From TrEMBL:
Keyword Electron transport in record: no
TM region positions: 113-131, 138-157, 208-241, 286-304, 324-348, 395-420
UniProt protein name: Nucleoside recognition
Biased composition (Low complexity): 71-81
Keyword 4Fe-4S on entry: no
Region Disordered, annotated ranges: 52-97
Keyword terms of this UniProt record: Membrane, Transmembrane, Transmembrane helix
Length: 425
């Protein structure tokens, strides 16, 4: 119990988190200082424009000196001393000032980018927390539960679906208990378990949907919208499959009327004051963790990219692959190991640099999802299912859901790559 309570404490109530924050801020400041000013997030364009303009201004006196030397052949010695001193004065006085200005512009632009990113993520997290506290997302579960009744599923499956939005273990336990009592058959157990898995995935994703969309915008909408839609289509196919099997067997005995969910287990909507309090705690926790982990990770991956860590991709990948999936996207894929919020933050930083586009961000996040799904399955989904379902049904549900997500993600990756290929020649 103590371990569970300590996990729920806000990070600002732990002295170790404050130490972590201090070290992270120091590391972030150091990365900003050692980052090349000409390749900064927002200051890259400004610094590059300064560097382009400087040689052009120096070239004009040199060219004028050449023309003057050709025209005034009677005094060749007087032309060279007059052209040489201004060139030396320009390099000694103007260059340090320009580099110092570019350096501070780089610092200010980075702080502005990080500040706006934290603001957008905080606003989005507050909206998501209020939706969760007021239980508005449960409407989707009740709608799908009604659809399950239309698919000739037993009433317990319709009751378990909304329950899965806040407790997947409780929803699956209801199905397993009914199956052990002989009230639902194996096909209904598998169909209900897959539906619960999808709803639990949606419920868990809602906690990061809003911060991710707040960080990267349109790519986040397409990322979650595409995966939710593909998963929903698969669940509808499973329910239709169960309906067909049920109609073939004509099992009318599986219609118990006394099965209802205990009223005390249904989550109640929080009052508005408590909802805002929950939102403030959620926003504070997300922003605190972003300062501890996400911002240093974003700057570190940017620094690694500029140090040529991903040059192997440019050397060995074919030109058409590198055009669709440039080396900068590798940082987004690697950052997704730490979570979607970290990946979205890195993507937002690269986009502010002008290194990637919105379709490329979507492609990188989909690739990261495909790479990380098998790891999450072995680490979390499969052990959890084996602890509730019989082994045969557990493997069927988990492998079926993961295979559907793998195929759906592959389809989304293909469509995104084709869009980039034909719209960004």
């Amino acid at each position: 119990m103590k371990g569970k309570r300590s996990r729920r404490l806000p990070p600002w109530k732990s002295k170790w988190h404050w130490l972590w924050l201090a070290l992270s801020l120091a590391a972030s400041a150091w990365l900003i200082l050692i980052m090349p000013a000409s390749e900064g997030m927002g200051g890259m364009k400004r610094a590059s424009a300064t560097m382009v303009a400087a040689p052009s201004s120096e070239a004009k006196p040199a060219e004028a000196g050449k023309h003057h030397g050709k025209a005034g052949a009677t005094a060749p010695g007087a032309a060279e001393p007059s052209a040489q001193p201004p060139k030396k004065r320009h390099h000694k006085k103007a260059a340090p000032a320009d580099s110092e200005t570019a350096f501070w512009d780089n610092i200010l632009d980075r702080l502005d980018t990080i500040g706006s990113l934290l603001l957008m993520v905080g606003i989005a997290a507050m909206i998501g927390s209020i939706i969760e506290a007021r239980r508005w997302h449960l409407v989707f579960g009740y709608i799908l539960g009604g659809f399950a009744r239309a698919m000739r599923l037993p009433p317990i499956v319709s009751v378990a679906m909304p329950t899965a939005l806040y407790s997947n273990a409780a929803a699956n336990s209801m199905l397993v208990a009914s199956h052990a009592e002989g009230k639902i058959n194996r096909s209904a157990l598998i169909a209900g378990g897959m539906a619960n898995s999808y709803l639990a995935y949606v419920s868990h994703s809602l906690r990061v949907v809003y911060p991710v969309i707040g960080a990267i915008g349109i790519p986040g909408i397409f990322y979650f919208g595409g995966q939710f839609t593909v998963g929903l289509m698969f669940i509808l196919c499973v329910l239709l499959w169960n309906r067909r099997r049920t109609l073939r067997r004509r099992s009318d005995e599986e219609t118990p009327t006394a099965e209802t969910a205990p009223p005390d287990e249904q989550p109640q909507a929080l009052p508005w004051k408590a909802a805002f309090g929950m939102g403030c705690r959620r926003v504070g926790t997300i922003l605190f963790r972003m300062l501890c982990l996400t911002i240093p990770l974003m700057l570190f991956i940017e620094w690694l990219t500029k140090q040529g860590l991903f040059e192997f991709w440019e050397r060995h990948a074919p030109d058409w692959v590198h055009r669709i999936f440039p080396s900068e996207l590798m940082g987004i894929v690697f950052a997704q190991i730490g979570g979607l919020v970290q990946s979205a933050t890195v993507a937002a930083g690269l986009r502010d640099m002008g290194a990637v586009t919105n379709p490329q961000i979507l492609l990188a996040m989909l690739v990261g999802s495909m790479v990380g799904n098998p790891i999450r399955t072995l680490r979390r989904n499969l052990p959890s299912a084996l602890g509730i379902f019989p082994a045969r049904e557990a493997f069927t549900i988990v492998l079926g859901m993961q295979l559907s997500r793998l195929i759906g993600t592959a389809i989304l990756i293909t469509l995104t790559a084709l869009f980039i290929h034909y719209t960004h020649p």
